[in-house]
Write a structure and sequence with these properties.
Number of strands: 20
Shape: elongated
Helix content: 25-40%
Radius of gyration: 29 Å
Structural class: alpha+beta
Length: about 400
């Protein structure tokens, strides 16, 4: 097999979408601190906005910078009333054709615990998330294409306490993370399941989510305690007589565990250690985003976490990347919202190098044998025709000689 790509790579900016979650009853208050202005802009009010009207003019003037509202501009801002289907059509739907053309696409949901990341990525039976919608769209396009052969494979893993586990197995030992020949991350021993229908992928997702580590905390009753990575590889090939050219695209969907504070979750013991591990990996991711968002040739600490090693291609390699920042407009989640918006704002400056992947696959030995037999048969026919033609020419030349 030989791999070929286009000589000129395309530089693309990381796309950032901010999604506001609906407020729960316990989060509702007299004031929402985050307000979408339009589809590109959000306004974050100061934390003490409820007390501003009670301050005199001199006090407000002295704290003008602290009391000022902040404005953030992103590629897309969606409010709490926007469903998963609408979000998908405005973000990921247009990338399905890119995947079929050999491009890599990565989507990761970032935000605090309870901000709606898993709902965005996985969804429910009545409101499927981005992963089921993308899978459904992909197979719909495949069914309509009768000119190519298709091969689709899926994998599903989690990163828990800096160990990688295969979510498609009932029991999984920690898997080793290695680097491939092109410095791409490879998880040794991870199962890649060939799939041919939406139902098969749905079963893989259901089984993986059932195996994923979740626990109830004070901040979230179904808190994910691990980062989940779903990957779907799509190969499209059209055969000619001697080889076939295969485009190989990949969709990577990452549901990150949420950042949390011990005072909010009231965790202790094992849950407290899990929370610390989650925060450490998210801090490593934030440090990578900060380094990549700054101008200049700075060191990017990808090796500080298994999570950042897995996301290296998504952040600075060969991938079209979408970041969905899940936030809450509740005053009780103010600090988490500020942190999420800050990292999302920095991620806007990241650029990736996008190259479609095309593999030229040599035919199998049995196919070569078939071709050789076909060519030999054609050669015999041509030899027989050639012999007959020579005999006719010789016969005609004998009869054309004049008699003296």
């Amino acid at each position: 097999m030989t791999k070929s790509t286009h000589a000129d790579a395309t530089r693309e900016k990381l796309v950032v979408c901010v999604r506001l979650k609906p407020l729960l009853d316990l989060e509702e208050g007299p004031l929402e601190v985050l307000r979408p202005v339009d589809e590109k802009l959000v306004v974050l009010l100061p934390k003490n906005v409820a007390n501003l009207q009670k301050k005199d003019f001199a006090t407000r003037s002295a704290n003008r910078k602290k009391d000022a509202e902040r404005r953030y501009a992103f590629d897309l801002v969606v409010g709490a009333t926007v469903g998963n289907r609408s979000l998908y059509e405005r973000t990921l739907a247009k990338a399905i054709s890119d995947i079929q053309s050999g491009y890599n696409v990565t989507v990761f949901a970032y935000g605090a615990t309870g901000s709606g990341k898993t709902h965005t990525m996985i969804g429910t039976s009545t409101e499927p998330g981005l992963i089921p919608l993308a899978v459904e769209d992909m197979f719909s396009c495949i069914r309509k294409d009768t000119q190519h052969g298709w091969e689709v494979a899926c994998s599903f893993l989690e990163v828990y306490n800096e160990s990688i586990y295969d979510l498609t197995r009932h029991t999984s030992e920690p898997l080793e993370l290695r680097e491939g020949p092109h410095n791409e991350p490879i998880v040794a021993g991870l199962c890649h399941h060939k799939v041919s229908s939406v139902d098969t992928v749905q079963r893989i997702l259901h089984r993986g989510n059932a195996h994923r580590k979740t626990e109830a905390t004070e901040a979230n009753q179904t808190s994910s305690r691990s980062h989940a990575v779903f990957e779907m590889t799509v190969k499209r090939g059209k055969k000619n007589q001697f080889s076939k050219s295969v485009t190989c695209g990949k969709l990577t969907m990452v549901d990150l565990a949420g950042a949390e504070r011990a005072k909010d979750t009231q965790n202790g013991g094992k849950q407290l250690r899990d929370g610390a591990s989650i925060n450490n990996s998210l801090l490593a991711l934030a440090n990578c985003i900060n380094a990549l968002g700054k101008k200049g040739d700075l060191h990017v600490p990808f090796r500080n976490s298994k999570l950042t090693r897995l996301l290296k291609d998504a952040l600075c390699g060969n991938s079209k990347t979408l970041m969905i920042a899940n936030v809450s407009s509740s005053l009780f989640q103010y600090d988490h919202t500020v942190n999420t918006l800050k990292y999302a704002d920095r991620a806007k400056e990241i650029k990736t190098k996008v190259i479609p992947t095309v593999d030229v696959v040599r035919l199998h030995i049995t196919e070569y044998r078939r071709l050789i037999a076909q060519l030999q048969a054609e050669n015999r026919v041509l030899r027989e025709e050639n012999g007959e033609l020579r005999a006719k020419m010789l016969h005609s030349s004998i009869h054309s000689v004049p008699v003296e």
